[in-house]
Task: structure prediction
Amino acid sequence: MFYVKFWGVRGSVACCSPAHVRYGGNTSCVEVGVGDHRFILDAGTGIRPLSKVFRADDVRTIYLLLSHTHWDHINGFPFFRPAYDKNRRMHVYAGHLKHQGLSIQGVLGHQMREPVFPVPLDAMKAIVEFEDFEAGDSFSLFPGVLIRTTALNHPNGATGYRIEHAGKAVCYVTDTEHVPGHLNENILRLIEGADLVIYDSTYEEDEFPRHVGWGHSTWNEGMRLCRAAGAKRLAIFHHDPDHEDGQMDRIGTEANQAWPGTVVTRECMTLRLD
Result:
């Protein structure tokens, strides 16, 4: 078994309106099922509906890999119900803080502190283990699964992930800003030959120049990277909250004309790699 399911596909801030219904308004959260194990990529608001599924399925060991700790990627964390269950174990990883002299436990604890939030981190009764690594490290959490990482170009840092299993690979590359005309070598190495690349596609090409320095990219750049690296499929992700369903439909049409098989991610969409 190797699948990817999207629980939150927006960037920056969650949005809820009739114009966002078909693609969804929750922020970044992706479930990856690998054999008997399940990973979570980021803890945006999409992790709240995912938590209900994990409770119903009685998932006892949970692996959370964080790209970074801007609000839209962690503000669902305090609402992840399995973390409050003493019979569960949770492993939380981040690769962008260690070199800054910070820790993921410290950052998440700061988020869950009065007067910002009324429930402290130590109210989570699960066995929660926090691990800070350096972006660029590779590690294996259990036999048959390799996780490779790389640093991304984003304010305050971010980490891209590649999860490999049984000859297949999915890459999660958000949040990152490209330099026009220069393909990012770190990303090219990470996504080489991957079966699926989930890429920060916040802006369209004509929007990007107005947002230089904001730390985001375009689906067009994701496509250029995938083609150069021999990746098989692009998943457009981290949608701008101002991009309503009609605009997302158009983006999907244009992207598939440029490269058939490209997918615009929606909440509850599942893609299988096995």
